[in-house]
Design goal:
144 residues, mainly beta, Rieske Iron-sulfur Protein, three-stranded antiparallel sheet, 27% strand
């Protein structure tokens, strides 16, 4: 995972393994908004309205704003699977907000019955090449 900054906020860029991608389906019934239909601070781009929350061609790459939708804390990466302090025994990896315990899967989707009301924001972004992206601009809306 790499961290960039956009509009003064951390943006996480996570290359997910095939195992990480496979774990997402297991969370569909457990997350509050599995298809990213609801927006938080940013409108959800059309290309992110899926369980991967990414372009279909590049579904292994997650790009999200690393700010919890509850009170603005920055969640911590908890990629290891299995039982851990403050996480469920069947944890498949994701993010844990240290402020009030909200949990997010490896697509930044918030789990049900947590303080955070929404998934992590997906900023507008686009690919300049297969391994280079620009954050804040996309083909749909242009400059953000």
């Amino acid at each position: 995972m790499k961290v960039a900054e956009w509009r003064g906020k951390p943006v996480w860029i996570l290359r997910r393994t095939p195992e990480m991608l496979a774990s997402l389906k297991k969370n569909d019934a457990l997350v509050a908004d599995p298809d990213s239909d609801k927006s938080f601070q940013l409108d959800v781009p059309k290309y992110a309205k899926n369980e991967f929350r990414a372009y279909e061609k590049h579904k292994d790459l997650l790009v999200v704003v690393g700010i919890c939708s509850h009170l603005g804390c920055s969640p911590s990466a908890r990629f290891q699977e299995g039982a851990q302090p403050n996480l469920p025994d069947d944890w498949h990896g994701g993010f844990l907000c240290p402020c009030h315990g909200s949990t997010f899967d490896l697509s930044g989707r918030v789990f049900k019955n947590k303080p955070a009301p929404s998934n992590l924001d997906v900023p507008p972004y686009m690919y300049l090449s297969d391994n280079k992206i620009v954050i804040g601009k996309d083909e749909e809306k242009g400059e953000a």
